[in-house]
Amino acid sequence: MPIRLSTHAERHSMIRGEPSRGEHTLKGIPASAGLAIGKAVVLNVATGSSTPERIAPHEVEAEVSRFRVALEAVVAELVRASELARSESATVSSIIESFLLIVGDPIVTQSICERIGAGASAEAAVIAEYDAAKGTLVMANDPFLRERVQDFEHVRERVLAMLRNATLAHSVASDSIVVAGSITPQDMLFFKHSKTLGFVTEVGGINSHACILARDLSLPAVIGIRSATTEIVSGQTIIVDGFAGVVVVDPDEATLLEYVRRHHELAEHRKRLGELIGQPSQTSDGVGVKLYVNVDTPQQAVEAVMQGADGIGLVRTEFLLVQQGRYPTVEEQEEWYREIALRAFPLPVTFRAFDVGSDKFRIGIPHHEDNPALGLRGIRFLLFKPDVFEQQVCAVLRASANRNVRFMLPMVSVIDEVVQAKAVIERCKERLRAEGVDHDPNMPIGIMIETPSAALMTESLAASVDFMSIGSNDLTQYALATDRTNELVADIYDALHPSVLRLIAFVVDAANKMNKPVSLCGELAGHAIASEMLVGLGLHEFSVSPALLLELKSRIRATTHAACVERAKAAVFQSSTADVYTVLSQGRP
Ligand code: PEP
Ligand code: MG
User: Fold this and answer.
1) Any bridge partners for residue 27, and if so which?
2) Which of 106, 165, 262, 430 is 20 to 30 A from 523 (CA-CA)?
């Protein structure tokens, strides 16, 4: 639970002497949890002197060179951001790479120069060209392509900002809160380096690239406050409440003191959580629960060890593809896997095979799919592209030489997929043996249970594998026939629907019967209201994001196994998600 607060001295000066313009609260959307109190820095992309739409023929050459200078400045900015991102977040790094691809596209550049040659000002040419590209993407059937519209908008705004010589002030004073129309991921990386406390924006989706980064960086953020840059004035004291999704402008003394109190309370809470590192993860009556973490990068593996995790329950290896925009070589993959395995050693690390699908990474998918979630995804894709799969298996096996590596197959829906995948794994072991390459010949093989079919067939599947992990994100999507990325059906998509809980209960019973370990690694594992119920359903292994590990441990240590069983019984027999929330909320603060 991140708390970002300005210094003690500053807080005092805020509390004491400022002329108040009257406290008011702006309501937005909570995008990244946490509290920040500081001075607002409002970023208006100054329009500068307005440029004409058309230019005279003798101005063309100068205008083209003005455009090229701006373009180069944007590329330089993105390259710098990409270097910063590499050590901060694989997700952001890949986003910036895609911005670079757009900005560096020679066809787009050529076309803008031609528009300028035909008499358009650089600004008008940039707007026309990027809007034309956006128009094509908006019409695309492919949702992945449609999502790229946002990237084109970001790039266009950066080029325009450079052209107008109105670069956002990346060197905002430390301990300030940035208020802007929108913020790009690379802005955010720069701001983070100048110790910005939090963010307020007018637009953006909860899953926009910038919000993903804010959460990655633990920076409180509230988005969707339409009037933010006009209602807030630079220098004003503001409070960003990333839990409630509100921004308090010019807080009065009582409000400020209340937020300072909450800050101390939350800081205490974090400290108490820190004390749980090294404490056993078990209910108060001694039932042990193993806590693993989900990681995307080698850096997060270190975090997992420091938090006292029992291991790494999920490495989403497709991040490596998204980050690089291609399939890395066996050597590159081996190095990345080995680094994670070594950093976590002797804790076990579970590498999940590339969960490629049209929504995440489409290289290798032969043509457009109308229903990508139901198409060539996960293990289906890997068996369709055996060369890609074999290279990954060999790389993981090579990295398994220290014997702490496990391998997991995503999106299994029929047993034949497991049989075929195991044959590929055996072939790879054979090859490594013949080459005299050290590896773990007994590397445990597991599967994700994330389709209703796999859930209902757990007993049969369990006989063929060493472990299983329930992917509640996809299990929910497929059980409720509800696209997990479609906001139009977001009210139906909820992992606490009784159908999902009954499937989980079924899987756990079948796995226990077969004496095979089963964990849960979807978002549900970190859901505060669900922990006791899940333990009560018989789950004794969870894998969550590193930030949630100690929260989960504290909830488990605060309950008894009998209470968990009660909660589970009450929840699974409900008939709606709302009823499940009601019963799980009873007796909670
Ligand atoms: C899941 O589906 O719950 C899961 C952990 O996998 P992903 O979110 O990567 O699909
Ligand atoms: Mg999944």
Assistant:
1) 246
2) 262
Per the listing, tokens 């995503």 go with 410
pTM of the model: 0.66
Predicted confidence (pLDDT) at residue 14 exceeds the cutoff of 50:
no
Answer whether 160's CB lies under 8 Å from 123's CB: yes
Pocket test residue of 319, 412, 473 for ligand 1, highest count of atoms within 8 A of CB: 473
The pair of three-digit structure tokens given for residue 456, joined into one six-digit string = 């209902």
Q: Which of 39-53, 173-187, 457-471 has the lowest average pLDDT?
A: 39-53
Angle, CA of 267, 269 and 274, to the nearest 5°: 95
Strands (E) located in 402-505: 405-409, 445-449, 467-470
Q: What is the DSSP string of 302-322?
A: HHHHHTT-SEEEEEETHHHHH
Counting from 1 in the atom list of ligand 1, the atom nearest the Cα of 522 is 3
Determine the Cα angle at 357 with ends 354 and 359, to 5°. 125
Q: Atom 9 in ligand 1: which residue has the minimum CA distance?
A: 316
Which residue type occupies 51? T
Q: How long is the chain? A: 589
pLDDT at 248: 97
DSSP string computed for 162-208: HHTT----TTPPTTEEEEES---HHHHHHHHHTT--EEEESS--TTS
Distance 358 CA to ligand 1 centre (A): 15
Residue among 491, 326, 341 nearest 406 (CA) = 341
Residue 232 to residue 241: CA distance in whole angstroms: 15
From 293, 448, 548, give the residue whose CB has the most ligand 1 atoms within 8 Å, as the site to mutate: 448
Assess whether the C-beta atom of 477 lies below 6 angstroms from ligand 1: no
Q: Which residue did the predictor score with more confidence, 581 or 6? A: 581
Contact between residue 256 and residue 239 where contact means Cβ atoms under 8 Å apart? yes
H helix and E strand count, the chain: 24, 17
Question: In whole angstroms, how far apart are CA 29 and each of 39, 430, 483?
Answer: 20, 54, 22
Structural tokens at position 232? 């807030």
| Ligand 1 neighbourhood includes 474 CB (under 6 angstroms) | yes
